[in-house]
Amino acid sequence: MRDRLQEYDPEIFDAILGEERRQQAELELIPSENYTYPEVLAALGTVFTNKYSEGYPGNRYYGGQTYTDAIERLATARARDLFGAEHANVQALSGAAMNQVVYYGLLEPGDSILAMDLSHGGHLTHGSPVSHMARVFDFHRYKADAKGRIDFDEVQRIAEEVRPKMVLCGHSSYPRDMDYAGFKRVADSVGALTMADVSHIGGLIAGNAVPNPLEHGFDVVTTTTHKSLRGPRGGLVLCKAEFAKRIDKSVFPGLQGGPHMHTIAAIAVALKKAAEPEFREYAARTLSNAQTLAGRLIEHGVELVTGGTDNHLIVVNTIASFELQGREAQQLLERAGLATNKQLIPDDPLPAQRTSGVRLGTPAPTTRGMGDAEMVTVADAFVRALRAKDDEAADAVRAEVQQLCARFPAPGPLLPASA
Ligand SMILES: *Cc1c(COP(=O)(O)O)cnc(C)c1O
After folding, report:
1. Most buried residue, 2, 109, 134, 398, by most Cβ within 10 Å?
2. Rounded CA gap, 58 and 98, in Å?
3. Can you name the CATH fold of 41-274?
4. How many CB atoms within 10 Å of residue 254?
5. From ligand 1's centre to the CA of 19, what distance in Å?
6. Residue 371 pLDDT > 50
7. Residues 212-235: tens digit of each pLDDT
8. All structural domains of the chain with their residue ranges
């Protein structure tokens, strides 16, 4: 197959090869990224992409659904079992779509939603003014306190003022555990629905390494499937049985047409992997690696938002630590072979294109098999590249990072680094 693609479309083939080499040679520290399983890639590249399956198993618009029904039933059953959910929908095309499904399915246009401020760790899809959702629903925001922790007195105060229909928690750059019981208490006190978007930590919840909002009585939980869960790009909506019909109708026919059945096959494979004992070890190690990485950075005098981490991600204040804007730090680190992303810090005085920080995460290095010793090496390399602030030093660090990466190859049908 690869030979045929190479012969027919060398431009695309070369780009695929280039990307495979880049992923092997660089260390992926972007906390939302991971290396998926070879089995998932195998399921993705299949003839399920040819098939229209609008509807749900047993109730589709077109015929020929024997095998699509089989994989979707497996995927939803595995999702329910893994997360302890009464209902699961696996058709959302990605994270942004899965959150729209919930807003449109459970609320009316104009309803108010209380969600985390973007610069304090919330996500664009939680009603950022630049997202279309902010034109449809009335978002209000809570923030973290000066130490970067969520202040529940403040959340309660805003909830009483706004009387939201939904309280939403979840994050893409909040390095601490969520107090789901705290959010549930606030929501109950004003009669609001509870939603947790656990996109970043879905795999850590599946691996029992961090708390599960469903165990605290949350109404709806959403998660992407491609971050710590290590699956293909997609989104899960997990909910109580009483919301099942509204959620399913909101996905189809409400928001989407035909589901991507090749992705659903691959999601089913990833969920099977996530139920294995090895995945629990992976989740625990992702956390311990983050602790080690954060601890070593702190030893170097680096300033971290909230002073540390409870999960897989670390937010570094690059202005305070290195007198570098996030964008400059990201560029230096990329040259040094460390892939990170610039990140807003709480109440960041700089715009999103520049930022005062970068975000690091351990899901991908942990997938490569790295552990404590390697995290110390990575922290040292990170600090060296940013202290020197010049290209020569970054190039020297890069050589070292490449050696480390060669010892811990990324999984997947990737070519050996020498090919
Ligand atoms: C990544 C993420 C999303 C969006 O996922 P996409 O697949 O990029 O659309 C939504 N919410 C949170 C909290 C995320 O981290």
Report:
1. 398
2. 22
3. Aspartate Aminotransferase; domain 2 (3.40.640)
4. 14
5. 22
6. yes
7. 999 999 999 999 999 999 999 999
8. 41-274, 282-407
pLDDT-derived band at 418 (thresholds 50, 70, 90) equals: very low
Using a cut of 0.90, tell me whether the model's pTM lies above it: yes
Which has the closest alpha carbon to 277: 193, 172, 207, 339? Answer: 207
Is there an atom of ligand 1 within 6 Å of 234 CB? no
Residues designated as active site:
52, 54, 197, 224, 227, 233
Q: Of 297, 419, 268, which Cα lies nearest the Cα of 357?
A: 297
Pick from 119-128, 175-184, 202-211: least confident: 119-128
Cβ contacts of residue 136 below 8 Å, gap of 6+?
103, 109, 110
Closest among 110, 113, 179 to 144, alpha carbons compared: 179
Q: How far is the CA of 225 from the centre of ligand 1 (A)?
A: 10
Note every long-range contact of 325-330, with CB atoms under 8 Å and residues 24 or more positions apart, other chains counting.
325/350, 325/354, 325/355, 325/356, 326/350, 326/354, 326/355, 326/356, 326/357, 326/358, 327/353, 327/354, 327/355, 329/358, 329/386, 330/358
Query: Which residue has 């892939």 as its token pair?
Result: 339
- Looking at domain 282-407, its CATH superfamily turns out to be Aspartate Aminotransferase, domain 1 (3.90.1150.10)
Q: For residue range 303-342, list pLDDT tens digits in order.
A: 999 999 999 999 999 999 999 999 999 999 999 999 999 9
The long-range contacts involving 391-399, CB below 8 angstroms and separated by at least 24 positions, are 391/335, 394/332, 394/333, 394/335, 394/336, 395/335, 395/336, 397/336, 397/337, 397/338, 398/335, 398/336, 398/337
The average pLDDT across 70-75 equals: 98
For the Cβ of 199 lying below 6 angstroms from any atom of ligand 1, the answer is yes
